[in-house]
């Protein structure tokens, strides 16, 4: 068993296809490879070598892909698998939770890797699209404006959305408007916004002394379920997002917290001990809030 530590294999840079691409020149655009090349990421040769050796071991009859259950996880595994020139059958572990029960159930129900071929192809297509847009658009706009301008398939439209939103906030102008209300016992009917006061007054006068008829009443009962409890994976992501916890740091803290809570729970079975453990329980509650909030 081993791991990919992120993207071990990635698409080769443009200059790997032709030395002339080291220099950015609009005349060379667009750069679209006829045959795509893949390289092992810098400083990751050792880990790739370990995976290559494991996949080539005669004792290994099949390979289990346990990368993230998603498009990106499928791509990470397949690129390493292909780069290692492995042709052994693939089994897919497809789980979203890192709890022991979920992991055991996942291994008991491994799926055929062929079922995820289309997922891999879609991920590969996205990666190539990112490469084509990034390499060509970045070089084009950088040369046109004589400065380095990084352009990306997702990055640039997202940045444009943020800019447009920020621009609309800064240029927001308050607009005065009027609402006409028709009030009765138990309800308040509101006319859509009216820009001119005179128009709103005309609507009010037209309604004065008139009879309103309610043609239909629709009542809905809605049930809102409480949010799901955290599983270990989601909790780890939140700890990283909010506090920058590493995986190792998170696991150390959560294991210590669970052990302490279990210990206090055992000590507090006797009602007489609850008061004596009150201070410790309070401290544990604060630890839990720090990790879980």
Short description:
The protein has 293 residues and is mostly helical.
Structure description:
- With 293 residues, the chain is mainly alpha-helical.
- It folds into three domains: 9-129, Rossmann fold, CATH 3.40.50.140; 176-210, no CATH class; 232-292.
- The chain contains ten helices and seven strands.
- It has a three-stranded mixed sheet, with no helix packed on it. It has a two-stranded antiparallel sheet with strand order 1-2. The protein has a two-stranded antiparallel sheet with strand order 6-7.
- Helix 2 links the parallel strand 3 and strand 4 (90-92).
- Helix 2 (71-83) packs across helix 4 and helix 8 (247-267) packs antiparallel against helix 10.
- The radius of gyration is 30 Å and the shape is extended.
- The two termini are 34 Å apart.
- The model is unreliable at 271-278 (pLDDT under 50).
């Amino acid at each position: 068993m081993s791991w990919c530590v992120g993207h071990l294999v990635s698409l080769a840079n443009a200059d790997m296809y032709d030395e002339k691409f080291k220099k950015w020149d609009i005349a060379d655009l667009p750069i679209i490879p006829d045959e795509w090349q893949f390289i092992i990421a810098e400083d990751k040769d050792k880990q790739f070598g370990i995976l290559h050796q494991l996949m080539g071991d005669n004792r290994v009859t099949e390979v289990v892909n346990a990368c993230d259950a998603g498009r990106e996880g499928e791509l990470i595994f397949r690129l390493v698998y292909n780069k290692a020139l492995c042709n052994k059958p693939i089994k897919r572990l497809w789980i979203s939770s890192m709890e022991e029960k979920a992991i055991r159930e996942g291994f008991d129900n491994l799926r055929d890797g062929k079922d995820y071929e289309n997922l891999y192809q879609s991920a590969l297509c996205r990666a190539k699209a990112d490469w084509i847009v990034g390499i060509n658009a970045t070089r084009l706009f950088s040369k046109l404006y004589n400065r380095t301008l990084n352009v990306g398939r997702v990055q640039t439209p997202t940045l444009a959305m943020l800019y447009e939103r920020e621009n609309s906030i800064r240029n927001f102008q308050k607009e005065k408007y009027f609402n006409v209300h028709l009030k009765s016992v138990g309800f308040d009917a509101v006319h859509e916004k009216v820009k001119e006061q005179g128009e709103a007054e005309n609507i009010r006068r037209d309604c004065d002394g008139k009879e309103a008829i309610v043609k239909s009443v629709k009542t809905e009962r809605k049930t809102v379920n409480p949010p799901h409890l955290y599983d270990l994976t989601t909790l780890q992501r939140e700890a990283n997002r909010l506090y920058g916890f590493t995986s190792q740091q998170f696991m150390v803290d959560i294991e210590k917290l669970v052990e302490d809570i279990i210990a206090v729970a055992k000590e507090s079975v006797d009602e007489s001990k609850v008061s004596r453990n009150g201070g410790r329980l309070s401290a544990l509650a604060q630890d839990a809030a720090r990790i879980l909030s």
